[in-house]
Structures are given as C-alpha cells and as structure tokens.
Amino acid sequence: MANSIRGEIEINLGGKTYPLCLTLGALAELETAFGSDDLVEVIERFQSGRIKTNDIITILWAGLKGAGSNLTKDDVTNLKIEDGIKSYIEIIAKLLSVTFNTEN
Question: Reduced to 3 states, what is the DSSP secondary structure of residue 17?
C-alpha cells in the first residue's frame, strides 16, 4: 500500500497496480530529461500549467523507477489507463503533490 507521507501513490495502468515515488534519484532523472539546471526549474515547469505528452511519460517513468519498477519509457507509452488523458493529468498532479508535501 502506498504511503503518501513518504511521497508514494498507487496507480492502475494496463489493469495492474503500480506504486509511484519521485525519489531524489527520480527527481534528478527529471532534471536531466527536461534539461533543467535545478529542481526549482523543474517545479516551475510543472507550475506553468503546460505539459507535453512526453512530459507525462517521463514523469510516470521516473515515478515508476523511483518506486523500484524496471519498466522502460517505451513500456510506459504502451500502458493503458481508464478515463484517458484526464487521468494521466490527475496522477501527475497527485504525485507531485505528495512528493512536495502539498496535500492537505
């Protein structure tokens, strides 16, 4: 079971439940993937309200990797989710919220 205090959430992709966690290493992966100089720049990118499909894939992959999954980015692109793109956005928002401890 996911522990939001530790920055974890669970999601259902392709009929299977996966944990997601943006560990320090996963956040470093995001900095590199987004060509950011630091974590603040990554956060500002998310706060802009603009997100690319590739950003969703990259964030999900980093969260899966941070939680110990061996799925590749290509694997992530082939996973299906109920309710389409809206669900992906909600997952990303929740993951970032627990990562940066902004949940109420």
Answer: strand
